[in-house]
Amino acid sequence: MWRAKKKKEEENKKEDSLLATLSKNLEVLKEKLHNSSDCVFREFVIGDKVNAAMVYIDGLTDKKVIHDDVIRPLMFSYAAGELPQKRLLKYIEDGLLIASEIKEVNTFNDILSSILSGDTVVLVDGEKVAIIVSSKGFPIRSVTEPQTESVIRGPREGFTEAIRINTALLRRKIHDPDLVFENLEVGVRTKTSVVIAYVKDLAKEETVNEVRRRIKSIDIDGILDSGYIEQLIEDNTFSPFATTGYSEKPDVIAGRILEGRLAVFVDGSPIVLTIPMLFIENFQTAEDYYSRPFFISFVRLLRYLGFFISIIAPAFYVALTSFHQELLPTPLLISIAAASEGTPFPAVVEVGVMEVLFEILREAGLRMPRAIGQAVSIVGALVIGQATVSAGLVGEPLIIVIAITAITAFLVPTLYEAGTLLRIGFYLLAATFGLIGIGVGFLVVLVHLSSLHSYGVPFMSPIMPLEADSFQDVLIRSPLWTMKRRPRVFGDGIRQGENQKPVKERDMQ
Predict the structure, then answer these.
(1) Is 184:212 a contact under the CB 8 Å cutoff?
(2) How would you write the pLDDT of the chain (509 residues) with one tens digit per residue?
(3) How far apart are CA 159 and CA 22, in angstroms?
(4) Which residue in 266, 273, 274 sits closest to 222, CA to CA?
């Protein structure tokens, strides 16, 4: 059986090999490409002696490169008239073609892969080897500021959909020969380029091997965005919390790589994944490290508070108004009772309806054209809020609670999806069991977060398990000169010299 399988593989390999006849090679390529209208087959003569042809996809190539670096030197170069009898391809590569990047292949599969990636294939009559000329030139979006991670202070460049531009943006940030880019190909039909980036002496070898293994094990028709990769390699598929980080900013990715993490680039996606990930990353932004630490620490505490309010405010309102009215101050209780008098529904139903309406407005604002979407979100919220209060369907205190919830939910964008699910869960627990349900819910969430891992790293580190020496960048952001070591969970190491605290000249004396 083993011999039969090996014999079949050898036969398939033989059938895939190029032939020595140019016309037959072209026939096979036309058949494999099904005579698609965007496939260009250009036949010509090299030096009035040798028949040749080139094949490329119209729209994926730079025609100026093809004309100046391939056609012109092969057809009109003075040296093209002195073709040698032997080692013809070597002479063409070294003496005629002036393209910056060329290589040889000898199978139809390699040719098809190159053509569909935007390269040009040169076939010469009598040769069983083809020349691949790099000529990628498809339209790409220019480097602009990412709208999802805007900053007041700091770099404003963001990744694009072109993977080589993205790796170049990262290389501009880290001028280190130990920065490694590993190329992989994922997707049976899309054959999407995936690049793993890491600094060799910082990233843990076992983490690199595990990421490489998971990506190589993906067997799927196509990869259209980095979100596919994230869902197919993550540790905890049924958790509402993402254990794989992402960003559109080269400086953020560079900072995480310098901590000992890995980045995963996917061709066609401006979103770059980072592995492993910690829960506290959701409350950190790039601007935190470009400004002085005092105000940034205050803002970071606001993010923690805002996330807590966004998931608990509706549930707390329902629990207090439905089960624990005695916990409210008497004046506040009288105000809530007066505002709710005459409303036809209990607080539980009111909160549920307003939560659904808020999510509908948010989704409508996102999916509609930008100018219209903003108008829909703002006008819709004002009109519906005013109308529901005027009609006596809900009370004013509930509108305030929902408004505060909506605002604080956007303080931590990366946790919006998980926060929405938690908010709904706490709301249902509060509607059923009151404050006891909220307390039990918090315990369940904490236990769940403590059990999560991201590629062997505890998701709640350095909070659980507690690592006091890594607490300088958790609740607050300590001065940069105090952060001497990288986070221990990514590999212990010193990232700055001793005595980095600024010192006046007279103090030194």
Answers:
(1) yes
(2) 444 444 444 445 556 889 889 999 999 999 999 989 999 999 999 887 889 999 999 988 988 999 988 998 888 877 777 777 778 888 888 888 888 889 999 999 999 999 998 999 999 998 899 999 999 887 788 888 888 888 888 898 999 999 999 999 999 999 999 999 999 999 999 999 999 999 998 999 999 999 999 999 999 999 999 999 999 999 888 899 999 999 999 999 999 999 999 999 999 999 999 999 999 999 998 888 998 889 999 999 999 999 999 999 999 999 988 888 877 787 877 777 777 776 777 888 888 888 888 888 788 777 777 666 666 666 666 666 666 666 667 777 888 888 889 889 989 999 999 999 999 999 999 999 999 999 999 999 999 999 999 998 999 988 888 877 778 888 888 888 888 888 878 876 788 877 777 877 655 55
(3) 42
(4) 266
Cα–Cα dist 482/470, whole Å? 11
Question: What are the residue ranges of helices labelled H in 121-195?
Answer: 163-173
Q: How many helices (H) and strands (E) does the chain have?
A: 18, 12
What is the DSSP code (8-state) at residue 496?
S
Q: In this structure, what token pair is assigned to residue 45?
A: 């003569």
Q: Which amino acid is at 110?
A: D
Distance CA 263, CA 273 (A): 5
Grouping H, G, I as helix, E, B as strand and the rest as coil, residue 245 is strand
> Cα 465 to chain center, whole Å?
28
Q: How far apart are the first and last CA of the chain?
A: 83
CB 195 within 8 A of CB 181: yes
Residues pairing with 133 in the sheet:
102, 120
H/E segment holding residue 416: helix 416-433
Number of other CB atoms surrounding residue 30 within 10 Å: 14
Q: Cα–Cα distance between 427 and 437 in angstroms, integer?
A: 9
- Other beta carbons less than 10 A from residue 145's beta carbon: 13
Tokens at residue 264, please?
């995963």
Rounded CA separation 362/354 (Å): 12
Which H or E run contains 108? helix 108-116
Q: What is the DSSP string of 304-355?
A: HHHHHHHHHHHHHHHHHHHT-GGGS-HHHHHHHHHHHTT-SS-HHHHHHHHH
With beta carbons less than 8 A apart as the criterion, state whether 197 and 181 touch. Answer: yes
Amino acid identity for residue 408 in this structure:
T
Which token pair is 323?
Answer: 């089960």
Phi, psi of 457 (to 5 degrees): -100, 130
The answer to whether 167 and 266 have CB atoms below 8 angstroms apart is no
Which helix (H) or strand (E) segment holds residue 390: the answer is helix 370-390
